[in-house]
# Entry
Amino acid sequence: MARNFVNILRNGAFDESKPIGMLSPYKWSQLTQLATHHHLLQIYASGLEKYYYNDNLNISQREIDVIKTELQSVPRHGFSDLYDFNHISLHNKRLDNELQRLIQKEYTDPEKSYPTMQLMAIIIVIANQMLTGKSFIRGILDLGRYLRIDGNNVDFVKLERWLQQTKMTHMANLQGNMLMAVFGFTQDEIPFVIKADPQARRMMMNGLRYQEIHDAQTWSFRQNKSGFIVSSPSTAFKSIHHSLKFYKYAPKETLSSISKGILKGLAEIEE
# Structure
């Protein structure tokens, strides 16, 4: 089932025809739900359309109608709409200050590189999605699509300097490794990948199957006579566990993300 999902996404996002296996109508319905959850319906529908005459596409007309109906209601956004260089930020205050300085500096640079700015925005948004428990699958696909569409115009020397300044080098390396491990990208297509990451495939496949959103920035507290307690300890611990998966890639950002979520929860306690 997961292999079918990946191959359909590869066809829809990158126009790469890969084989699909036979699934029951129920499992095809589950894949549609996955695509909807991960905000991938446009890409999924585009890939699925190319398999309409494949004998293994055991999908009901009802399911096709559901996809078409939902697809019509999904707004179409460009890269600049989804990943705005002007509005990216980091959780860690010092690193965010560094990010905002380089944004301002780039806009005043007579040799500013819009493709590099766009790619940096995509990487930062994906990193935030990863740390806050949101789906990052669409981001990874958009990263791959952008690299293939405009990668030749990116100033990768400048990008690597920005990633170093904001301590995002290892997060970017993870994202690039996910493209290589699951979606068939090569090292030459992703110059900011500095080393292989054996965990990338597992983390990507777990993300594909992940349908619950545990927002690490949304902690719910309540007050009792003895002080403050977490309303849902299991959800809180899941949020921490999820964020800590990325600790080795961005230690300061991970801890700042968790702290920010706790402070936000405390601030929202009803008097």
Residues 90 and 96 are 5 Å apart (CA to CA). The chain has a mean pLDDT of 84. The two ends are 48 Å apart (CA to CA).
